[in-house]
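Thanks for the sequence, V.! I ran Transcription termination factor Rho right away. Repeating your input here for the record:
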Amino acid sequence: MSSDSEHNNDDGLPLDYGFDDLPRAAAKKVAKKAAKKAAKKAAKKAAKKAAKKAAKKVAKAVEGEVKSEKADAPSAPEKETVKEVSAPAKASPSGDNEFRPTDFKGRGSHADGKETVEVVKDPDETPQERKKVTAASNDDDSDSKSEDKNDRNHNRHDGGDRSQKGDRQQQQKGKFSKNKKGGRNNQQQGGKQQGGRNNNQGNKNNNRNQKGGKQGGWRQPPPPAERDHIEGDLPAASRFSNKDACEEILKELDGSEPIDLTALYEQKVEPMAAAIRALGAELEEKCSRKQAIEALYKFAREGKRVLKDAGFLDTSDDGHGYVVHQVSNYQLKPESVYVPASLIREYGLQRGHEVEILAVAPEEGERCPSALRIVSAMGGDPVELAKITPFEDLIPYYPTERLVLETPDPGNSKKDVSMRAFDLLTPIGFGQRGLIVAPPRTGKTILLQGLANSIQQNWPEAHLIVLLIDERPEEVTDFKRRVKGEVVSSTFDETPTSHVHCAEMVCEKARRMVEQGKDVVILLDSITRLARAYNALASNSGKIMSGGIEATAMQKPKRFFGSARNIEDGGTLTIMGTALVDTGSKMDEVIFEEFKGTGNMEIHLDRELINKRIFPAINFERSGTRKEELLYHPQEMEKVYGLRRVMQGVPGVEAMEMLIKRLKVTKNNIEFLMSLK
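Predicted structure:
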């Protein structure tokens, strides 16, 4: 509405309102309100015009001073145009409190509801002049925005009290939206160059983040990165690009008898040093294992001697591999021979293959010898590996051949009675996947030792591996002294990476042997701690199961346990693992539940029997074997079923105590079953 219509109206009302039909009192009330609004609007316009004129005068005066100073000093440096956030600064007693743009990375300062403008920063301009220009610009923008809001509110006028209420709400809404808009603009312009109070706040936050992060405090030193425990560099892969290149290097070496590294690695320091001196190498009288091996490599390099090694292949993600040994629990050592990727691809070698190689001594700066020729793989020609069916393609079936644990020697020892109870209550077959569910201190270690000795005595052709994960070192020593089979361990003072690597090497080795048609038995203690190690190394996917287990952490331990199977017309892989329960840990309970349905045999040990010192503490009611009819003799199965029916009517502790007494008075299980009526 123009100002002419306001002054030409005799009644002092807008011409287009039309109050003819309204009552006289209501018309007067509306007329007063309209007059007040018109007066306010006129006052705002006048103030706006005065502010614009004052701002223009100040800008012209400043511009004139700048031009005159430029003319007086032509050699002055060029001015820089910057974007700054204008904010009302408090009066400072000194003139040094000027804007200094600071470059920092971040989200910018927080919004304080002030409008932003672009100004030209003049190094010679006084703070008082810059303050006047900034204030005039801010007043201009705020007046223009309030005018737009008032126009929209005035157009929505509906008459009466409803109109007044609506105008008040719209005015409040305009104020809030204006402040909100100003805050958003301030946030958007908080970039690399900011000034005023917001910039100081940003610098403060930035300095705090540099010290200790967003939550304050000094930054803690980062944890030391995992360093490779093997010193030196790997041999250059370009030297062994293909099989022919390896053969060319081998032809340049001495054709005399190769130096056997396997025999040297298995010895202790003093015998190994003596053997190296016998070869002709220079070595001090008192030396470490590392010094002895370095002297051996130097002697072989200078004399161009060929090295020979035998072990198991451990592959890496880069395609190359290493030769590891059973003596060192298949762990990677500084002296592990490097196997080029070209030789692995040439013969289709896989992790766990038993190989015999010829190697060359390491060059200066290299950490290990390099294989040049694969002499044999799995005891035969490496070319024949291509004809072997992979483990994943073999056909699994239920165990059909029984693994008898009762020893032929008659005796009444507790260990012998334990194995006889195993044969009666839970028969084990080749290819069994069994769990020994045991609370703490229930004799599971003694049972595993009895299983190992019985298997070695009754089935010497089967390859036995005792795998101890996260166990006590003294138990490892006890197993090595009591069990004649292969004992592989990773004690509790080693890292989860060591636990996982040790278990995976044993699993891959067993798979390669099963592909060859051999029978392998793995006694694992314990599968619970192995699953814990996998969980510690699992990536943080954000999906946490009950007990704090990662959703993907159980896949690999299940793959290990699921490798146990009976192969039709082939080898077998039997795994008997212990699962810990009643430890007070929710994670252990969840791990047991995850493996509960994967096995085909379970042996539960009872705490009540242990408290009464009854061994073996087998809970016959909860223990059993799936498809046990494939393992029992028909007549034996009838006797065993009758025994279970009789024991079912007696409390578990008394029934097991009665069974153990009857077993001790008989020489073998056949005599015991024949004595049953």
